[in-house]
Amino acid sequence: MDDSAAATPEQQPDYPQHWEADILLRDGGTARIRPITPADAGRLVEFYEQVSDQSKYFRFFAPYPRLSDKDVRRFTHHDFVNRVGLAVVVRDRFIATVRYDRIDAEGRPSDTGTDAEVAFLVQDAHQGRGVASALLEHIAAVAQERGIRRFQAEVLPENRKMVKVFTDAGYTQHRSFADGVVHLEFDLEQTERSLAVMRAREHRAEARSVQRLLTPRSVAVLGVSRNPQTVGRAILRDLLGSAPAERPVHAVNRNAPPGTELDGVPVHRSILDIPGPVDLAVIAVPESAVPAAVAECGAHGVRGLVVVTAGYAETGPEGRDRQRALVRQARAAGMRVIGPNAFGLINTDPEYPLNASLAPRLPGRGGFGIFCQSGAIGVALLEAAHRRGLGVSSFASVGNRSDVSGNDFLQYWAEDEATGVVLLYLESFGNPRKFTRIARRLAAVKPIVVVKGARHTGSLPPGHAVPATATGLRDATVDALFEQAGVIRVATITELYDTGELLALQPLPPGDRVAVVGNSDSLGLLTYDALLSAGLRPRTPVDLTTAATGENFRIALDVALADPAVDAVIAVAIPPIGTSAHAFMGGRLTGEDDPAMGSDDPEIAAALLEAGGRAKELGKPLVLAHLALTDLPTRLRPGGIPAYPAPERAVHALAHAVHYAQWRRRTAEAEETARVPELDRIDEPGARTLVAAALSTRTATAARTQPGGARITLSDAEARELLARYGVDVSPTLPAPDEATAVAAAASLGYPVALKATAPHLRHRPDLGSVRLDLTGEEGLRRAHRELDALLGGAAQAELVVQRLAPRGVDTVIGATVDPAVGAILSFGLAGAPAELLGDTAHRLVPATDQDVAGLIREVRAAPLLFGWRGAEAVDTGALEELLLRVSQLVDDVPEIASVDLEPVVVAPHGLAILGARVRVAPLPVRSDLGPRAMSTL
Fold it and tell me: Taking Cα atoms as reference points, which of 813, 801, 817, 708 lies closest to residue 756?
């Protein structure tokens, strides 16, 4: 069948293109959901013929062997409002359908009712794959879009599979039984349970799809050449080097003469000529030949593709179009795609070893799951693991990341018992919200260490599949995302492995108190200083002197590990005096051939290994910082003791482990104790009404035509009224265009007052002299007004206002901004140029809990000013935390609020005052993370 005929928008101008979606099924296969159109009559008839008589009986409650012409017309002609049909399509054939019909309160067809009857039919061969569950999510979303709020369904009691689809979905439902039929009614509004069910299904499907890629029963390489230097030939050799005897590896070259063999493997002219199934195909043909190769793979039933061919989105807009077409073609045939422009895929599982990559050897088995978006970085990561003697569980370098992404691998590694630590090199995010959600769940049990490239806006590498909303993701936003998800962010590949190795080999530290023991006073002091700089609490270093023996190390390490006031130990070591590492001694250069000279003392290594065993028993990490000891790290490797050739590297790795362990403890505690308090003075309906009114104005309508969207700024009065609906009281201001008006305003507000400029170019700029404080009477106010009028070019231009003087305290700034890619972000910092210049601002994702806001105000470097620095009186942090919770709830409840800025917020010893507020609103953004499950279409 011609897939182009599947939907005919030109015949139906109201065809809802946005309802089309690629989905992952329970077994990891792909399919497409789309509306049914009149052009699908042939597909529908063919589909129905493949359904068993029992399934037909369950659908129609009577024998129904075939569809009449009238039936076919009814099931393919829809108005996409009151009557909607969706189909699940694989390889251009229907495998399932669903339909709803709007009804009124009496159950009759209606154009205005808010209920609808819904019915499903799934081919028997595809039952059990989660098809009906996915269809229910999508038809429910479609119905809600069309104003339907509740579904009704009638199911025969013996149709237990369909009853289970409805009952397991998590919607609020009502169930009754009459006349031999189960009658189900369920509201379509998402519930916590329905969302949890949807995400659990998503997790299983994505994990299974990656597992299918990593454990193929057979593999074919398309594009194998006689030239041994070509990519296809190299991958064939790599596959053969890793393949168990029972897994066939096939070679394909459409120009190969009959009987050709390469590397002992027969070469087929087409994948269709290969007898038996092929689960994974590696495509290394020229870009122009890829569509035909993908089509043949789909026809042969291939489950997954690794496309190493380049020439796609990294080349520009035309290449991006080719990339999208490649993904659509593969998914339509039920296949997932690694790439294009990929380095490849590796699995070190002894039962399923796989090297479908350009790596010349299969890495050793170990606990690191590695994902990257760059082939060059992939090579570096594998080489670093080999050099350090670290093993890998699985590895993926996905190139342009058009389909399979890091999120998919995180889902898989959450289930993979062989993976203990996840290492990521990321340059972009396809779905930041989803990454945060998945990473947070995984980080609660397994560490995730990330190097984030392309830190600066505008440096996104070409070819990456990224939505427009995520291209400008600020680095501060990424930091907040990582912080709340428990992801460990490091700066370099070296630090990635330094940290990963410690997390993989040592227990998590129970606290931040660190003992330093070693044979060098100088190295101990360097380590001590580095620990202080990292925010840890070091004990005074124990210097054993350069003459220390293995026994001295053993005793000192025993004492340190046994100390209940020590949570981790760093051993520091330099070569014993007289060894070859001290090359210059008395003017003589010792040579490597001197048998008396070694780079370490085996007794010291033995003492460290013995201490390492005790450290693990006590649950305290032990690491080594050394200088010029080339042999000692190798001696310690069997005991799993990380060794670092510089103290700062050891400290950085340990600090990351300490902070990660603290995050895990906080998260575990928060699940039991953290809450979003119920606040008084919350008027959500009133706030929504105000925002809706603002968005319906002429100004808002005009704004929608402007570049950058429809964000509009509320007036000061509108902002104060909106914020007051959530108990956020902004100190009122009165205009002061002249002296007389200023005096009248002050009399109304009550002295003392402040006089300040509010023009946009002067707002929050006291350094320009635009504010006068402590005005206690009319004479002082008039004098201040004359001064500002002369200084700022006129009172009208400066937009002078009078405001009641706030109590003395600490000036702070509170903000909430909606990032389209991540969601709402709550921010806090101290006011003023120094904090702004230093970027001293902390962030949390919304909604924030009481523990989130308590941590937020303590995270900024200037936080001591809030808690009585240098003898000053501490301010009311309780009131500050409550204000942050109110702002968080406001932007969470009313998603049309694009940003809230409160500046300054003066926090006094008792209470606080909000002296300035700005609120911007915008039409409700699309939340892809709350809709039905669908694969990215970037």
Answer: 801
Q: State the Cα angle at 692 between 687 and 696, rounded to 5°.
A: 150
Return the HEC string of 846-892: CCCCHHHHHHHHHHCCCHHHHHCHHHCCCCCHHHHHHHHHHHHHHHH
Instruction: Kindly write down the DSSP assignment for every residue of 574-615, as one continuous string.
Output: -PPTTSTTS-EETTEE--TT-TT--SS-HHHHHHHHHHHHHH
pLDDT of residue 767: 66
Residue 174 burial (C-beta neighbours within 10 Å; 0-12, 13-18, 19+) = exposed
Q: Is the dihedral of CA 267, 273, 277, 280 positive or negative?
A: positive
Structure tokens given for 704: 């929608």
Residue 438 has pLDDT above 70, yes or no: yes
DSSP 218: -
Q: How far apart are the first and last CA of the chain?
A: 26
What does 272-297 look like in DSSP terms, one character per residue?
GGSSS---EEEE-S-GGGHHHHHHHH
**In the predicted structure, residue 472 carries a pLDDT above the cut 50:** no
When mean pLDDT is compared across 238-242, 307-311, 389-393, 598-602, the lowest value belongs to 598-602
Task: Calculate mean pLDDT across residues 387-412.
Answer: 93
Q: Name every residue whose Cβ is closer than 8 Å to that of residue 88 and which is 6 or more positions away in sequence.
A: 23, 31, 32, 33, 94, 95, 96, 97, 126, 131, 134, 135
- d(C-alpha 353, C-alpha 355), whole Å: 7
Report the C-alpha gap between 701 and 765 in whole angstroms.
32
Determine the average pLDDT of the residues in 661-686: 87
Structure tokens at 322: 């080719």
- Pairing between β-strand 753-757 and β-strand 800-804 as defined by DSSP bridges: antiparallel
Nearest Cα residue to 805 out of 783, 777, 838: 777
Tokens of 178: 């009459």
Whose CA is closest to 136, among 123, 153, 124? 153
What residue has token string 């329970």? 26
pLDDT of residue 922 exceeding 50: yes
Q: How far apart are CA 630 and CA 325, in angstroms?
A: 53
- Report the percentage of the chain scoring pLDDT > 70: 91
Q: What is the C-alpha separation between 628 and 582, in angstroms, rounded?
A: 9
Give the pLDDT confidence of 593-613 residue by residue, as tens digits.
444 334 567 899 999 999 999
Mean of the per-residue pLDDT values for the chain?
87
Q: Answer whether residue 584 shows pLDDT above 50.
A: no
Kindly state the tokens that stand for 938: 């970037």
pTM for the predicted model, two decimal places: 0.82
- Check whether 700 has a pLDDT greater than 80: no
Q: For residue 725, give every residue at least 6 positions away whose Cβ sits within 8 Å of its Cβ, in sequence order, or none.
A: 682, 683, 684, 686, 687, 690
CA distance 759 to 757: 6
Percent of all residues in the chain with a pLDDT value above 90, rounded to a whole number = 58
Mean pLDDT value of segment 243-258:
90
Spatial distance between the Cα atoms of 316 and 885, rounded to a whole number of angstroms: 45
Q: Is 575 exposed, middle or buried (0-12, 13-18, 19+ CB in 10 A)?
A: buried
Peptide bond between residue 350 and the one before it cis (omega within 30 degrees of 0): no
Q: How many CB atoms lie within 10 A of CB 10?
A: 7
Q: Is the pLDDT of residue 30 over 80?
A: yes
Tell me how far apart the alpha carbons of residues 516 and 538 are, in angstroms, rounded to a whole number: 7
Peptide bond into 752 cis (omega under 30): yes
At 590 the pLDDT is 42
